[in-house]
């Protein structure tokens, strides 16, 4: 079940025209595709119609659809203490119930750089939190 915060973010993006491309237990990949502006298509049509019979316009649209698509990865944040299971706010540094440090950032030897976008991710992660790429696929390892 999604948290209210995550569902609100998804609803806001869907209202802006984004679509859900992929979802997992703790992440949702949103995509906003575009085909290019009408002005660019008119210009491409004028410049290419007599040579390619309009195929240049189709190629321009496909190029925009593939290269100018925007993606956003939304993550479900855990709201539980790993020790006692008490509810902990997302920005808390420690659990108010048992005192466990829940705000630890991973150390340098526990992190790796994503090969797609160079973002720092925790070693053993399946997906990059910045770009959403599957780390097992991009690194050639299996998990």
Structure description:
This protein has helices at residues 4-15, 38-52, 55-67, 135-139, and strands at 19-23, 27-32, 70-75, 111-113, 120-122. Helix content is 31%, strand content 16%. It has a domain at 105-143. It is elongated, with a radius of gyration of 21 Å. 10% of the residues are buried. With 143 residues, the protein is an alpha+beta fold. It contains four helices and five strands, in the order αββααβββα. α2 (38-52) crosses α3 (55-67). The strands form two sheets. It has a three-stranded antiparallel sheet with strand order 1-2-3, covered by helices on one side. Strands 4-5 form a two-stranded antiparallel sheet. A hairpin with a 6-residue loop joins β4 and β5 (120-122).
